[in-house]
Amino acid sequence: MGLDAESFADGTPLVFLFSSVNRTRMLSVFVDERSRDLSVSEIAEQAGIARSTVYDHLDDFVEIGIVENTRKTGVSERYQLNMENDIAELLYKLDGVTLQALLEHDQ
User: Fold this and answer.
1) Domain total for the chain?
2) What is the mean pLDDT of residues 74-87?
3) Could you give the CA distance from residue 66 to residue 10 in angstroms, rounded to a whole number?
């Protein structure tokens, strides 16, 4: 099987969700900052990625309901983790249990 051949995992939901480091970083920012809404600039800064990269992925997260558009301040839209969404809630729980496992591993 060549490198350019599609693997079984390519079409799976988890690969869609975590298909790049940038998407994973964005999701991490939303989970860590779940109690407040963020502008695209704030998301980019905290994730360590370009604003254009945030725009590349943000619509996917909004479309499946993980992230919601909360309000507009001036010309900036603000976004927040949608804790009423099952995926968002599970991401939050996954973050917590992963942290716990990492802390236990380090002891």
Assistant:
1) 1
2) 94
3) 21
